């Protein structure tokens, strides 16, 4: 198979010479197979799983919230260079965009629907684990549906041996109904010889909450996108992403908090480290739609650059169609300060050891949020091994 996918469109275009308005995934000369989602272990009570759902099934799940979204749309022009119409065909708007949907449907990827029944607050996580062998080229798709006043936690782990080659593409769509909460954790430690994309899209109804933790530590080239629509009043989206790119690894991401309801709250935190000749592109957008009065949004990126040869592109964006909102963004990008190195060296820690210590501390600040001790330990061991 050979194919080029246009992904990660910035919601409002910026100057072309930056070459960051979108990205491309080139899939060339590989045979991809579609797989059912590998749910492992015993399912917690109150959780159901349906394999082989169709796109029509997915449209039915999201029908009610999509009608509410359509009712809130206003016939007014968007910002200059508005790319929103590009993804109008999506059942659920995702960070990476409509071409991922089309690709998944073209490849007949089976969709697994994981549901928390109404009123069920389940603390035990649903575990999903992709273990890739050398040469595996796999696509997978899930819908996580938290019904009214329910709570569900899903932990997804992607692993392989260090020298394996291959490809992994995942799309995860989320629906948190009124008063519901979804906790989503993704940990990726596949081989640098593999390419990977991870596409997320979600909708929160009234007083609903989506909490996401994402650790991107492996893969030679990674594309990631996450778009959460805060449709309902008092809905919440919290995201924490940690990434470590070394050698010639590349990470291209697009995160959007689409705030439509009143008094919504979004908080997106990104902590990363770039070493050697790594390349990273970050797009982060807070989009306050008309009608989102009283909403608050904050996005913060903290990137540590540990080589003069890395390439870092950061584009924090705020789009505002409502007056009564509070939007904040910021980026802290730089090297280890001389004062920090002096402090470490004065206590017998050389520069190389100091760098490793700071890398581990930054990654573990995100990893410690994961509600599974065994995965935290595996992340710590992985980082120590590659460093």
Question: Could you characterize what this model shows?
Answer:
The longest helix is centred in the last third of the chain and has 17 residues, at 351-367. By secondary structure, this protein is α/β, with parallel strands linked by helices. Helix content is 17%, strand content 45%. It has helices spanning 55-61, 63-72, 98-106, 338-345, 351-367, 373-386, and strands spanning 2-7, 23-28, 33-34, 39-40, 47-53, 111-116, 126-132, 137-146, 151-160, 166-176, 181-189, 194-204, 209-216, 221-230, 236-245, 250-259, 265-274, 279-288, 295-305, 311-320, 325-334. It is built from six helices and 21 strands. Strands 3, 5, 6, 8, 10, 12, 14, 16, 18 and 20 form a ten-stranded mixed β-sheet that branches.
Summarize the helices and strands and which ones pair or pack:
Blueprint: E1 2-7, E2 23-28, E3 33-34, E4 39-40, E5 47-53, H1 55-61, H2 63-72, H3 98-106, E6 111-116, E7 126-132, E8 137-146, E9 151-160, E10 166-176, E11 181-189, E12 194-204, E13 209-216, E14 221-230, E15 236-245, E16 250-259, E17 265-274, E18 279-288, E19 295-305, E20 311-320, E21 325-334, H4 338-345, H5 351-367, H6 373-386
Parallel strand pairs: 3-8, 6-8, 7-9, 8-10, 9-11, 10-12, 11-13, 12-14, 13-15, 14-16, 15-17, 16-18, 17-19, 18-20, 19-21
Antiparallel strand pairs: 1-2, 4-7, 5-6
